[in-house]
Amino acid sequence: MSPVVGVQNLRKRYRRRDPWAVDGVTFEVEAGQAFGLLGPNGAGKTSVVKMIAGLLRPDEGSISLFGSDPGVPQARSALGFAPEDPDFPKYLNAHEVLDYFASLLGLDQAERARRIPETLSFAGLEGERRQIRRFSKGMKQRLGIAQAILGRPKLLILDEPTADLDPIGRRDVRALIERLKQSGVAVLLNSHLLSEVERVCDTVAILARGRVLKEGTMSEVVPEGSNLEDVFVQLVEANQPQRDHLPSFISEGDTKTK
Amino acid sequence: MNGAASVGRYTLLELSRRRILLVFFSIGALGIIALGGGLKVLYQVASSNPQNFGGQQVDAATFDHFLELLFVSYLFQTLGIFALLIAYAIGMTAIYHDLDSGAAVSIFSKPVSRVAYTIGKLGAAVVALMVIVGLLALEARAVMFLFGGGLEAALTGQLVAVVANAIVVMLIVLALSTWVNNIVAAVIAFVYYNVITGVITAVHMLADGGVLGNDVVRNVFDVLYWLVPHQLVSTAVRELAEAEIKISGGEAGGQALATVPAASGVGDIAWWALTVILFAGLVYVAVRRRQV
């Protein structure tokens, strides 16, 4: 079975003088698989998913999205992408945003009338009439996930999907991922919340400084008796310069008191 | 061209809700009423005292025609200014806010091509500009009923020219705002279009009208003139100036009209069309290259 998405030796940097933001990343995601992309801040996770979504151009390497280049619009027709810190046209309301995106997905009027209210209901935004500029970060995040699932994607990319959500929203996202996996949808999850990744993902790749440090199924990456957080911290700390964890002035008060 | 219509439709909806456009439209609409009504009232008060016209007897029809000429003359300038303001406002927001807010990330991850997105945005921007300036012109047309009438065709011709010029400015701002901050884009567009192009056009017109006799200056500005966008002018501007000179008893010709732009010719219109294609192409290139 050919993978839903495959990246080969992907490299990206934003300016010539900058270090590589993504440096030789290779992995594949298959249908029905939940793939977790983990890494510290600046590891290159968002750059990787944006290249898969056709938003950034790789400098080197290749990406296959449903067998095509993600720059081709048709390749993105079965892609749902919920970006980190999502935003939308400010003067539209949630229903209009979904109608706008549904029309870009090529859904006809009847299908839009059926899917949009249900999607808004799932996102807890039914009856919400305010324009996006009045939305909180959490509401935008819910709408971000809503627009990503609207087209019944075969690949759902979630970039830090629960960062601004309350516990109920997080539970809903977990349930959504489980449900999508069961129906054969591939999920690519970028998250800092390791416990969450451990609960929903079958396969993970840990990135640091643009490189994949470790990749495999959850049981391959996390040995018996350990957990994902321990593995993650060990791997990442071994691959970046040691630093003092607290600024020196924090303990100055203690010295003076003594 | 999947998606262009959707992008256009929702961009229009967004533009219709932008307060800055509503403010410019409201000020323009109030300004036109104040201009027409004010002229009528002011001159009626003034005409009640014959001494105000140097003791000359002016018949009501001539006087109304003079007022209408004056009104239309001011109106052309007002429409030009507001069309430019609206063009700047649309150009600064139509694409820039999608890119700046991050909305473009969600939009471009959908199966819509950058060319369809650009066409949708440009179409919506041009329609919005035409509707807003068209509404102002309709209002101006209604205000003209206060006077004798007869200059309606002049208004239509100049309206087309004003919108055509505003489209060029809007495209420049749209293209620049895809690369740089929208305020910086507006400032660069203003310097390029309203200062540099304005000066070149004015000096070229003076040289053409024989006001500047220096052949070197004339040749230099002949070349420069064909390197910048041409501001289109309808026949109405010169006709209006001639009528104003005539009604105030002057000689309409030569030097008197040297500072009044002549109607644009086929070459100017073709150059305008080329400019529009060029800047629309630049908007597309900027959108296509943009990584979000």
Give a written overview of the molecule.
The complex is a heterodimer of chains A (258) and B (292). Chain A is 35% helix and 21% strand. Chain A has 258 residues and is an alpha/beta fold. Chain A folds into 2 domains: 5-78 and 153-257, Rossmann fold, CATH 3.40.50.300; 86-152, no CATH class. In chain A, the strands form 2 sheets. In chain A, strands 5-6-7-3-8-9 form a 6-stranded mixed beta sheet, with helices on both faces. In chain A, helix 2 (94-104) crosses helix 3 (109-122). The longest helix of chain A is centred in the C-terminal third of the chain and has 16 residues, at 167-182. Chain A is globular and about 60 Å long. Chain A starts with a strand and ends with a helix. The mean pLDDT of chain A is 92. Chain B is mostly helical. Chain B has one domain (4-289). Chain B is globular and about 75 Å long. The A-B interface holds A 50, 53-57, 73-77, 79, 81, 83, 85-92, 96, 100-101, 103-106, 131, 144, 147, 151 and B 2-3, 5-7, 9-10, 13-14, 17-18, 97-98, 101-103, 105-113, 116, 291-292.
Question: What descriptors fit this protein?
Answer:
heterodimer, A: 258 residues, alpha/beta, Rossmann fold, 2 domains, 6-stranded mixed beta sheet, 3-stranded antiparallel beta sheet, 9 helices, 21% strand, B: 292 residues, mainly alpha, 11 helices, globular
Short description:
Chain A is of the alpha/beta class and 258 residues long. Chain A has helices at 45-52, 94-104, 109-122, 137-149, 167-182, 194-200, 218-221, 228-238, 252-257; strands at residues 5-12, 22-29, 34-38, 60-65, 79-82, 155-159, 186-190, 203-208, 211-217. Chain B starts with a helix and ends with a helix.
